[in-house]
Design brief:
This is L-fucose:H+ symporter permease. By secondary structure, the chain is mainly alpha-helical. About 75% of the residues lie in helices and about 0% in strands. It has a single domain, classed as MFS general substrate transporter like domains (Growth Hormone, Chain: A, Up-down Bundle), CATH 1.20.1250. The longest helix is centred in the N-terminal third of the chain and has 42 residues. The N and C termini lie close together (about 5 Å).
Length: about 425
């Protein structure tokens, strides 16, 4: 069976009134983990200064965060299946807050190893939130519009990705001075973040979640609900799901490497100060936000898988321009990389969850685990960047080629 034609999507409602409050609340969570992930990219540069790290060493920031996805993916999925979406969200928020508060003793010890532990626990929290939130949002309405709902929610993730570098640059990079080892700003910032997340967890505990569609129930229109059209298959016999895991691995690999060294590119190739490059990162993330709103609109007239393939080709072109060190044309291409990247994560996630029925929650765990690509790729890009930061952007071309194949061919539900 092929995926539902795009014509069917225009007739399906975005969501239902009974899901509205829950959808608003869960959508807000996308923003909070967007703040946390992009704050890590600012920490990457800040730690190079205050802890005297090389680019390759500082990539451990991304390794700790994204490595947590690999470790936490399956446990989070099992927890969600046993205790439900709401409790899964509360677990994620709790780990997020604990990891943030652990920055206080890490800063007091001035230990990069201790920071790595704090980042790993924080990463376990946001991994749990991602594992839970994507199928949660997909379940809050008709499956034919799940692509639109997830891309809409991910637009607020992009808003968080704007807030992260803006706040991080202001508090961490603005007063960077050669030889400084002061970590007070890091400690203060993460106390505030931990307090906000703990408050959100308390508030969410009072939200009443409506009963969601049981994937085992026979429905009149199997395309409208997430019903397994081949219930005799195991999860890994669903080839579109397997390809979604592979595509997500390479997608987040490209994202993590690109974001981790954005400030370095601005400093080394454009001559910006770290703070100025950090401010440009706000624009960089703003383009991702714009891309998600544009992408959500375009999916009403272009099939999501086709738009994914088109944007992957655009990013291959952007990487080629960046790697040539053309000055402003290359920097503009670097900015545009995030515009075209915008729809990739949520669209791969949504396409991978189509028609999996009772396998959906387990599938979400494995697709979230694919995010471990973000733990590995910054090290590879960092090694190339030690010699030339622009040449490092040849590497994501491999990633976008895999994403193109998924969007062009291997997305199909069979």
């Amino acid at each position: 069976m092929q995926a539902t034609p795009i014509a069917g999507q225009s007739k399906a409602a975005f969501t239902e009134n009974k899901y509205l409050i829950t959808l608003i609340f869960v959508t807000s969570l996308f923003m909070f983990w967007g703040v946390a992930i992009t704050m890590g990219d600012v920490l990457n540069k800040h730690f190079q200064h205050v802890l005297s790290l090389t680019k390759t060493q500082s990539a451990f920031v991304q390794f700790a965060i994204f490595g947590a996805y690999f470790v936490m993916g399956i446990p989070a999925g099992l927890f969600m299946k046993r205790f439900g979406y709401k409790n899964g969200v509360l677990l994620g928020l709790s780990l997020f807050a604990i990891g943030s508060f652990l920055f206080v003793p890490a800063a007091a010890a001035a230990s990069f190893t201790f920071f790595g532990i704090a980042l790993f626990i924080l990463g376990c929290g946001i991994s749990t939130l991602e594992t839970v939130a994507h199928p949660f949002v997909a379940a809050l309405g008709d499956q034919r519009t799940s692509d639109q709902r997830i891309n809409f929610a991910q637009a607020f993730n992009a808003l968080g990705a704007i807030i992260g570098p803006a706040v991080g640059s202001y508090f961490l990079l603005r007063n960077n001075s050669e030889g400084s080892t002061d970590l007070t700003s890091v400690k203060t910032l993460y106390i505030v973040i931990g307090s906000v997340i703990a408050t959100i967890a308390i508030l969410f505990s009072f939200v009443k979640v409506p009963v969601l569609t049981d994937p085992h129930v026979v429905v009149a229109d199997p395309d409208a609900a997430n019903v397994d059209v081949e219930p005799g298959k195991t999860l890994f016999q669903h080839k579109h799901f397997v390809w979604a895991v592979i595509a997500q691995f390479f997608n987040v690999a490209a994202q993590a490497g690109t974001w981790a060294f954005f400030i370095n590119f601005g400093h080394e190739k454009m001559g910006f100060s770290d703070a100025t490059a950090g401010n440009y990162m706000v624009l960089f993330m703003g383009l991702m936000l714009a891309g998600r709103f544009v992408g959500t609109f375009l999916m009403r007239v272009i099939a999501p898988h086709s738009l994914l393939a088109i944007f992957a080709v655009c990013n291959i072109v952007m990487c080629l321009i960046i790697a040539q060190s053309f000055g402003w044309p290359s920097f503009i291409a670097l900015l545009m990389l995030n515009f075209f990247f915008s729809i990739m994560f949520p669209t791969i996630f949504s396409l991978g969850l189509k028609n999996l029925g009772s396998h959906t929650q387990q599938a979400s765990s494995f697709i979230s685990m694919g995010v471990v690509g973000g733990a590995i790729f910054p090290f590879l890009m960092g090694m190339v960047a030690e010699k030339d930061i622009a040449s490092a952007y040849y590497l994501p071309i491999i990633c976008y080629s895999v994403i193109f194949l998924f969007g062009a061919k291997f997305y199909k539900v069979k």
